[in-house]
Amino acid sequence: MQKLSSIMRAAVDRYNMIEAGDRIAVGVSGGKDSVALLAGLAHLKRYYPKKFELIALTADPCFNNIETDFSAIEKLCKDLKVEYIIRRTELYKVVFEVKKSQSPCSLCAKMRRGILHDMAKAAGCNKLALGHHSDDAAETFLMNLFCAGNIGCFRPVTYLSNKDLWMIRPMILADESKITALVENKNLPVVKSTCPMDKNTEREKSKELIKNLSKDYPDLKAKILGAMERSNISGWSGSVFKVNPPLEISE
Predict the structure, then answer these.
(1) What is the DSSP-derived secondary structure letter of residue 196?
(2) CA nearest neighbour of 11 among 153, 151, 155
(3) What is the tens place of the pLDDT at every residue in 162-208?
(4) Residue 206 CB contacts under 8 Å (≥ 6 apart), including other chains
(5) Strand 157-160 versus strand 165-168 pairing type
(6) Could you tell me the sign of the dihedral formed by the alpha carbons of 4, 8, 13, 15, in that order?
(7) Predicted structure pTM score
(8) More exposed terminus of the chain, fewer Cβ within 10 Å: N or C?
(9) Are 133 and 30 in contact (CB under 8 A)?
(10) Domain architecture of the chain: domains with CATH
């Protein structure tokens, strides 16, 4: 936990993610990344010099029109002394039954983010923390390139002017393998996804592509991230955002 917390602090300091007095909502889907993010921020909160508050938020998609059991997450939040709010939604019904979207993952993610934005504002938060890590960044870069023909990625820090809300990604410098190891080592609770598209997404294809290409091109992920930083793609140069950054992002 100390190692992850140190990596998170490096990202927080580098991109000026946290200021004193912040009330930060943590988007918790129940997956390993969001659970690690919650535990990591709770640990960071104990010693970070800029004091901030935490609250955990879950927007349940209610896959297959069934409410997800988040009791294990509720217990974790209780142990961490973090307030927890769950909102049951009709995401599954809208995406798969009403819209019958040809790109269900994109639509679901967009709608879920919108719900989390509203939940964060309703809870009096000025920032929303998301659990994206360095592997997500490299995969998103390739997804934008191959699927949309764009050069870009999500930003470490993004300001949403229409919501007056900042989105931060404190695990942006952490490897997925280290996050997985932490979750297993600390026996953190993970809620298995019942999404019908689970493991059958463009992200999974990008993950597999990087894995296969890395056999011939060692450290490919690190090279992708390094290229993004050197080219200042999507704010990855380490610049500190003191004013509203551009909002044209693809996730």
Answers:
(1) T
(2) 155
(3) 999 999 999 999 999 999 999 999 999 999 988 887 766 788 889 99
(4) 138, 139, 140, 142, 143, 146
(5) antiparallel
(6) positive
(7) 0.88
(8) N
(9) no
(10) 2-235 (3.40.50.620)
